[in-house]
Amino acid sequence: MCDQDHFEEDRQQYEALGLVTRKQFGVLLGAGMAMMLPRAANAVAVTESDVNVTTPDGSADCYFAHPASGTAPGVLMWPDIFGLRPAFRQMGKRLAESGYAVLVVNPFYRVKKAPTAEAGGATPIDQVRPLAQGLNETTHMTDAKAFIGWLDRQSPVAKNRKIGTQGYCMGGPIAFRTAAAVPDRIGAVASFHGGGLVTNMPNSPHLQAAKSKAQFLIAIAANDDARAPKDKDVLKETFAKANLPAEIEVYTGSAHGWCPPDSQVYNEPMAEKAWSRLLALYGRALA
Predict the structure, then answer these.
(1) Which of 118, 128, 175, 230 gives 20 to 30 Å between its CA and that of 207?
(2) Rg value, the chain, Cα
């Protein structure tokens, strides 16, 4: 699981350094709302809906957004520990406006319907940590198969093109395992400030992902790299050995959790850079 205990100290550190301001954190307490993201270039009209996906463990409440006409490559989006909320709906819609059929899931559906964090990215970690602790390798794999299967049954999803998956924070390793669970369908995997990508266990997400057929984008927070400086090298060596294309970069000045716009350490310039690299990945791998 990701290093969630450091969120507050990271916020204080980066505010003190003048890298972000409290206003830039984009947190509207109580409502869990996010700052408005920039509109996608050449944005297409989209259709949005709340959907329920049947899994081996129940019914998962999710958000589905896709271009209003035609078909598009599918994308499965795994949120961070704060779950499905307005910030991730914005991110899903923005990606749909760029030409993708996007399913944003509530990974905690077994316990609670979304929203699962009462104040979005400003929710105290102790309130949501038990939700994350209820997930494991088995749930990652079974959910991944169910969600990808659901996408493949939707008419807006292009069946002749690969599917992408992206994860934030704890969603990073789940995205890795999604590639391992459905290797013939996943063409691209992106992890943003993913925690627990590399472990010393034989079922480490990075080892499982290396058995896939995907291309990878791994965006690492600067402070995560400072805590585990060898992880990026392990990732590079592992994917190179597997002959899988992988763009692996430490994002200067970023703190763990910098991408979602309601995060307490949201860093807009670095988040936009990560977003542009995501679109480049999908443009190559899902074409």
Answers:
(1) 128
(2) 17
Contact 2, 195 (CB under 8 A): yes
Q: How far from 287 is each of 72, 167, 181, 239, 282, CA to CA, in Å?
A: 10, 20, 22, 22, 7
Question: What does the alpha-carbon distance between residue 208 and residue 46 come to, in Å, rounded to a whole number?
Answer: 34
Tell me the residue type at 187: G
Q: Could you read off the pLDDT of 199-238 as tens digits, one per residue?
A: 999 999 999 999 999 999 999 999 999 999 999 999 999 9
Distance CA 65, CA 52 (A): 13
Which residue stretches of 102-189 are H helix? 125-133, 137-152, 171-181
Smallest CA-to-CA distance from 192 within 66, 77, 26 is with: 77
Asked if 83 contacts 116 with a C-beta cutoff of 8 angstroms, the reply is yes
Q: Kindly state the DSSP code that residue 240 receives in the 8-state scheme.
A: H
Over residues 131-159, the pLDDT tens digits come to 999 999 999 999 999 999 999 999 999 99
